[in-house]
């Protein structure tokens, strides 16, 4: 007898639905074993990770704060990926958006500028992100340059530009040369939604982005075009769809959303511009986009879930002295199972007689 | 993977210890926020050594918790607040970048006391503390000038903040007392910990003629490069002799244990108050590693200087001090004031380079 992986005639809708659940189930089992090896009670460890943050108002807020930039960026990326355009540089667009919006905050600092400052900052952030994302898009459609490489390389350019600005021209004059701008004025700060908490207006913007993404993909011609160009480029050409225009469009949208996320993060939870404003949100969002199956609602769920593992992991460090590395192992295991289970959508296991000549894993 | 097993083993030990410990409920909870992973050496490692010393000293009355690898970005405020919410009454935030987040959380939790390392903003429930590392730098400057054959020192800087600038100046003021024509080449790596960049910087400095390498960064990479190339070097933060048994002259070791024990005692006695602490060799917050790989007469100079600084007979920034521009630096006493050192943003005469961004 032999166990082989065999391609299905068509993708299994049932598995597509239950595979994330199987993945989570397998992750929980694996983690329980790991916790037991570590000498922790698996049930209470999993409780600290997954239940405690969900029954506590403060933690719920923090989950939303953590998920906000991930959602915004991942929705934009999903449009690109659906259209077969590979924007890997959301991190750079995030940083450029943060820089562009901060410019206004720094320039109006200490003046009596009114409440127009914050909306203008958000607009600037989105605009800068879009323009920055258009660089690799134009290089692709005009010169055939790989957008994967160019968009990725532009991340470092953005990072160094931010670095230069906060160490040089924008440095807080009273900050003893430390690389940071002064704290933004109240009119340049994203307002919090609940007094005393950190949940801010950005969370509402993120929800609006999810809704807009769902409408765009499900109800508009552009959305239809994006999906067709990605899924069947030849058919799209016969249909008269303009792939070039779509690449530019999806890059611009995803850049704008990443840039918006950047300035919201800086003007919100951080409150000033400094190096290290992003713990890799632009890259984590790529994982979120795929975990959410490039679907706006899926992305929202995936971002919240990933945020939950961060918050839960932190509480596990405090409450049960579980090392941070375990949280990272945990996230890795989860991704591994999700990808492994997803292969069951297109493939299935079959037991066959040992003498059979059938080859496994046909592509 | 190896790291994971170490972590797993450590966690098991921690659980075992927990089982035999007393009840946690009536103990004072003390929290720590670390910038990096604890690792085997460097900034965070030194803070954790101090935490362990604290547990050893007062373990029956306190319970400590730490969060490691907390980035200085948007996550910091949440991590600090999590510790406050978990019932920690005294929280040490051990990197400059936690200043604003610590301040924000301190305002929200007026009954919790905070201790922020290396910052300059305080509140009624938020103290600051740091070490007078420039005192150690002065001793290094003397040793370097005596040991250098080329008369060129290589200096790897992290960020051009006052702490680092004052370290460079202190080194040069000392070195000039031995060799008035001594030169220093400085490379900024814009990071506290980046072994790749630090190693590259060390190579570039040696290629430019430097034969003694000094660093204000965390990793032993520069020490290893100096060892490979047969040059001399100073360690930083931790004892680094094992990375250059024939290379390390001494190392400036951060020793936070006495301070942590003192502050926790004050908290236990209900005597904690917001303060600005800046301790040096005398209080043993800054400790010199053994003086090695040098002749006895150089060692004697180093030891005598260390003793003189401890006794208050010698101050590295004794006036008059001439700035890079040739003008005498304003001075109201025997030496520069603490405020002047804490906000230092000029090079002394004899340094040819410019401060980045100035």
UniProtKB/TrEMBL annotation, chain B:
List the Pfam families.
Bmp (PF02608)
Residue ranges of the ABC transporter substrate-binding protein PnrA-like domain? 28-303
Keywords for this protein = Signal
Q: What InterPro entries would the database entry show?
A: ABC-Purine-Binding, Peripla_BP_I, PnrA-like
Gene3D superfamilies recorded: 3.40.50.2300
Where is the secretion signal located?
1-24
Q: According to the lineage, what is the superkingdom?
A: Bacteria
- Positions in coiled-coil regions: none
What protein is this chain from?
Answer: BMP family ABC transporter substrate-binding protein
